[in-house]
Queue: 2 jobs
Job 1
Amino acid sequence: MDPVRLTLDQLRELRDDIAPRAARRSRASVRRRLERWRDRIFFIAQCALAAGVAWALARYVVGHHQPFFAPVAAMVCLGFSFGQRLRRVAEVMVGVAVGVGVGDLFVRFFGTGVPQIIFVVALAMSVAVLLGAGTLMTTQAGVQAAIVTTLLPNPGAGFSRWLDAVLGGVVALAAATIAPAAAIRRPRQQASEVLNELSAILVETAEGLRDKINQEAHDEKRDERELTDALRRARNSEAMLDDLRSAADEGVAVVRLSPFRRKHRGRVQQIADLVVPLDRAIRNIRVLVRRCAVSVWRDERMPDEYPMLLDRLADGTRLIAESLFEPAAKVAAHRVLGELGRRTADMPLPSGLSAVVVLGQIRSTVVDLLELTGTSYDEARKLVPLRDDGLDEK
């Protein structure tokens, strides 16, 4: 009876635990969906207004009775990526012109029907490809050829559809100049998130090494788990950098194309310039963390000072993140990293391979992070003095 009773108790505990966990997951899912909606609300409103304006202009100003493609063209041209909108406008216009032209010719000479639709779509898309079109332009050519052949078989209606497309594109282009401020703030926020994540990874790596060196962990596997988790986070940081790169590209496109945001060009470009040295820093930190993890897995001895070096490297990284919003922190970051660079030059060369690799990666990362403070590469190298034993930073 006892085993059965114990099993029933476990089932009750499991049941009692499932409901709160499901509720937490549900709340987290709702929050994520609301965050996505908030991120895209400007785009949704922009598309909705552009569609309405394009339809009204085509209907009441130009006098078209069925200007359904004007709002469609406006929404397609806007798209999700600000930097591609000019190209989208051009591609949609050319695609429509090709599709409508080919469709008109076939309707005039061959009428409508299943064979005509198949042939006219294939021909319109082929012409677009031969003109060097991208995917969007090629698709639009096929779509418009099909629509002209089926919904607008009257050849005289072809020009009105092309004019609707042009009108929708012009409205989209005008709407695109009204850019959201979020596109300017987001790169800085994303860069801060990447740097804070790198700082947290370095702190976790330092803790894992410290536990291994001191052998004070209550769980002998805790140091290994810490290093394994740090390595996983270091590998995942590449995805965060991709998000930063996309945000920076969009921000640069916004300040270049929108006359209302050009005054922010310097600040946005400053963040975009961080991507390359930050990419190098992420790669070096990933190698550093992997080698620390290997040393723990292989039970290799690391110098006692290494956890402190990693803590200082984490401090410098965190200060750079703060400097994106508080410029005064940049001075502190420069000082911390400079001191760390000089300290690594004076340390004796360790005996183990992993320890040598980690020391070299720390020095390389210091140079990369110094560049993030606005220091030139040559000046950053001078702040990390060469070692007499030949272990160079680059």
Job 2
Amino acid sequence: MDTNSERRVAVIIEDDADIRHLLETVLTQAGFEVIATGNGLDGVQAVRAYDPMVTTLDVSMPGIDGFEAAKRIRAFSNTYLVMLTARDEEIDTLQGLEAGADDYLTKPFRPRELRARVEAMMRRPRQVLAVDGSGPVAPAAQAPAPTAPFAPAAAPAPAYGAPTAYEPAPVQAPATVAAEPAAVVEPAGPKNYDREDGWIEHNALFVNSEMRLAEKDGKAIELTRSEFDLLNALMESQRRVRSKADLALLLRGESYVTAHFVSEADKRAIEVHMANLRRKLADSITTPRWIETVRGVGYRLAASEAD
């Protein structure tokens, strides 16, 4: 039975017509039904209407830029989000990942690499923590099927490839951003953190890979997919060092073998993810309680406080 959740839908948000056509070709060949848009406002509306599995998002666009579009999309959607940009500075990577991107590619990119990264992301669970930290939530429950065809925010544009003149649309925050946060319902009774129930504990930090939950001091920690996967990998490895290349391949769903290429940008992305993870855990770099940097190699769990 064909349902909206089973369709391989991809949304492209890209103002450059040539790159937009290239992305359409790559994703269509990968088996996706593609919806292409030329600006951030139309792209956000398309994601809301079609609930895509994958969304590619250009950073530099007229109107709202890719960072703002990513934040708006993350307010209601768990689509796999790949940001594409001509800028490769670390601060831009940090902004993209903090805005909710799952991966970050610089232009010019290799179509084969983009396709491989998209397929690798889709091998990872799409379920993540709810925004209010109350538990896992499936994206299909958050984005209902469209009741009307997608209509762009501005006047309809001519066929792709024809010259167009951009007329900026008014920037309005979606209702989901301004809405009051949902109340967190505390579970009844003490939680069972038994290892047999799938929980791993280290220095009072608890992780459950099956439920994709991370908790500290009895409170859920809101993590992105990549941050959770990295934390879970370190928790499972304990004091064994995981290199940046190893962790980059883990996020791509590949095993650590020398045949796979890991770029410096991939390694920088791991550094950014780890910095974000430390910030959310309130962990110290100089006296870490959970994540310890092994200089020149990678990362491992800090020593147990019980030792």
